[in-house]
Structure formats: structure tokens, C-alpha cells
Amino acid sequence: MTLARPARSLGLLHTAASHVGRFDALLAELAPGVPVRHAVHDHLLADARARGGVDAALAQELGVVVSSLAETASVILCTCSTLGEHAEALDGTFGARVLRLDRPLARAAVARGSSIVVVAALASTLEPTRRLLEDEAARVGKRPTLILSHCPDAWTHFERGDEAAYLRAVAAHIDKVQYLGDVVVLAQASMAGAEAFVRTAKPVLSSPRLGVSAAAELF
User: Looking at the whole model, is its pTM more than 0.90?
Assistant: First the structure.
């Protein structure tokens, strides 16, 4: 007997519990009525940071998490930029589409400027974001200048749960480095709210709205 596949739903893979409310608000606006399942695995990001990246063992563990989500989700959206490229590599493996939140962001950034400043509160996010931007640029025959800028003072605020201080620290860093490029990319979903505090007139792009919009198009 063949078991019926569960109804189509969207699975969101997070590495911070604070993302649940943020993405629920976006989904209510952009994908109302789509069933959603959140899965929070903060240890995956902690392990990636401790190991200096995603090694084979961690990639295998990520596969187990994605496989579990695919039992009830036909589309899976990974909201962690550090894990995104490894999650995306599993697209279709378990019978579900697997998207990385920041790919639409990279596409938009490449379209907007020939020099892109990438700001990240976690250094582990910089290299995956650089590779993603280079990949998107190659798709359209471009070679933008990429300036990677770590904002080291912000993450401690995030870990303490002080989102306001976190976003203001990110915004202050953006104001210091924005002159280096045509457009600023916020490499982590958690940084999106900093856009409200920056003083620069240059475009500052973040991933949540663009990524959720891309996922919603599949329903």
C-alpha cells in the first residue's frame, strides 16, 4: 500500500529561535494560507562556527534535518547563510525543493552594483556569501568587486537577546563602510532590521523578504 504524501507545506530551517516570529509575520503578508513548519536547530550554527565551517559530519547532520522536514514540507527554506549552500545542495534529494534564503538577495545585489559591500555579524557567513555572489554574478557574466566586512561587536548583543542594540551596532558599521561600494548586502537574516537605522542613501539589501517571496512563488 502506498501512503499518501502530506499536504503541501513550507518548512523553514532556522538556527535562531528569534527568527520564528519574524518569518511568521512575513509569511502572513506574502504567503497567507500556506501551512508552515518551523524547525530550529541552533546547534548547527554553533558547530559550524566551532569547526571553522561546515565539515562532512555537519553536512551529514544537516541532511538528516532536511530529510525530516521533507516528510511534511514540499518546499524547504534555509534561513541560515552559513548553512545555506549546503542546504541548497540537497534540493530535490528528499522529494522537496530546498532553497537558501539569501540567493534572491545575491541576485538583486549583482543587478544593482559593480561593487558590493558584504556586512556580516558572524565571520563564518562571509565566505559562503562571497561564493554565492560570485555564482550569481557568473550566471549573468559579471565580475563585481566584493568587499567583505565583519562587524565583530554586534553579535554579542544578539546572543544576549538585545535586538535593538544588535541592529544599531550593525547600522553603525554599515555607515562606516558604505562608501566602499555601490550597494550594501546584509549577509544574515537577523540583520534586516538595521536598514531602519542606517544614514546612508545607498541601497542596503537584506534577505528575508526576498527569500520568502521566492519560496511563496512555488505555491
Answer: yes
